[in-house]
Each structure stands twice: as C-alpha cells, then as structure tokens.
Amino acid sequence: MSSHDKTLKLVTNLDRARIESRLAQIRGAAQSAGLAELAQMLAGAPGAPRAQLEQQVRNALKWLADKPDQKALEAQLELVEINLPNLK
C-alpha cells in the first residue's frame, strides 16, 4: 500500500441529497479524468427513481471493474451503493 492511499470512511446514513451530491462529485471526477463514458453513466441522477440510480451505480461499477487505476472512483461508488437502500 503506498503512502498516498487514503482510507474511505464508511458512511451508511446518506440521504437522497447527499447520495446525489456524491454522485455529482464522482461524475465530475470522471470527467476530469477523461472518463467520459463513466460520467455519462452517472448523468441524470438528481431526482431519478431509486431503481434507476441502482442500475446506474451497478453499471458504473461493472465498467470500473477492469480499471485498477480508478480504485478511488470505484470506492466512492461502492459507498453510494451501500447507501442506496436509504433512498425514499
């Protein structure tokens, strides 16, 4: 493990606003990293039904599965995935 690796704080009580905010941050990071396809997968999250968000997150995680250099984005998406049951 390198010295620049960060520990992700496990948060399991994100509400819809914080989940959507986190997805927007991930989408922005994907765009900045030149991952346009990933950014597109996460488009339209605000106000989307829970099932749609679940599918978007699952698809994004599948897409990232073979990209070991994007572990930080994958970890952020996993955090969102853990919180999806909190959506109302």
How would you describe this structure to a colleague?
- The chain is mainly α and 88 residues long.
- The chain has one domain.
- The chain is built from four helices and no strands.
- Helix 1 runs antiparallel to helix 4 (71-83) and helix 3 (50-64) packs antiparallel against helix 4 (71-83).
Structure classification: mainly alpha
User: Helix coverage percent of residues?
Assistant: 55-70%
Calculate Rg over CA atoms: 13 Å
Which spans of ≥5 residues are poorly predicted at pLDDT below 50?
A: none
- Counted by DSSP, the helix tally is 4
Order of helices and strands: HHHH
Termini separation (Å)?
38 Å
| Count of domains | 1
Q: Quote the beta fraction.
A: under 5%
Number of strands: 0
Tell me, rounded to a whole number, the average pLDDT.
89
Shape: globular
- Main sheet makeup: none
